[in-house]
Amino acid sequence: MKTSIRLLLLPLLFFCIQNAHTLDIEITRADVEAYLGGNYTRSSHFMGEIAGIGAVQLNNIIGFRGGLSLGRTLIDTDINIFITTEYSPFKKIPLSFSLAYIYNGLPEYKAHANSLVPFVSYYGKIAGISLGVNCRFSSFFGEKAEFESVVSFYGYVNFLNTEKIFMGIGCGNLKDFHANNLGAISLNLYAKIPITEKFTLINDLEYMQSGMDGLTATLFKISFHTGVKISW
User: Contact 87/59 with Cβ under 8 angstroms?
Assistant: First the structure.
């Protein structure tokens, strides 16, 4: 997009924000997350990671969520970006329709993957599942991008939900920053500890394998993330 067009769009964006109340648009939820993490993978060994995520929901119907993650080993840089739009049309049914854009890049290897993932989610208090299709364009070392489509899914079960702690377990190949191949399944254990009404500690321990059966399945990554979530 040319610079002149961007400059014309900026005043329009600010005009829409300033006049959102005239359209009966209400911010019903907003939060930000920040966390540090450490990964061990078979390819890059140890990697440090820092990430930030922001989310906003309008009228309890439309939600926007996005984030940036930066990882670093002694020689490699890992860049991950996602933007998700969510539409929840039903008040009494926890069902939503989402569209996510995910970018994964390894600059040292000129590796870039751009994914567009439409998916449907049922997010119950005890259990939930997301199911969609990852439409991905991948390129390596400056070569022409290759297209592939992969089934994406993620399911979770919350086995502890009190005022002092929230814990559960999830499994799948679709998460905020990644939409992996069908054989790259991750299992994660998560815990959220509310400190105040607006301040929550978050922790996530993840195990990822590559391969689906006993002969090809092998450990690919173990990671741990810890951080904070602020809501208002």
Answer: no
Q: Would you say residue 14 lies in a domain?
A: no
d(CA 36, CA 72): 12
Q: Give the distance between the most distant pair of CA atoms in the chain.
A: 61
Span of 19-28, 100-109, 195-204 with lowest mean pLDDT: 19-28
Residues in the chain: 232
Measured CA to CA, the distance from residue 207 to residue 26 in angstroms comes to 39
Q: What average pLDDT does range 216-226 have in this prediction?
A: 75
Structurally, how many domains does the chain consist of?
A: 1
Report the number of secondary-structure helices (H) and strands (E) in the chain.
Answer: 1, 12
% the chain with pLDDT above 90: 58
Q: Given CA atoms 114, 120, 232, 199 in this order, what sign does their dihedral have?
A: negative
The enclosing domain of 49 has a CATH number of: 2.40.160.40
Give me 99's structure tokens: 């569209």
Residue type, 102: I
Supply the pLDDT for residue 3: 44
Whole-structure pTM value: 0.84
**Measured distance CA(68)–CA(73) in Å, rounded:** 17
| Per-residue pLDDT tens digits for 174-184 | 999 999 888 78
Tell me what pLDDT residue 209 has.
79
Residue 157 lies in a domain: yes
Torsion 70-106-150-66 (CA) sign:
positive
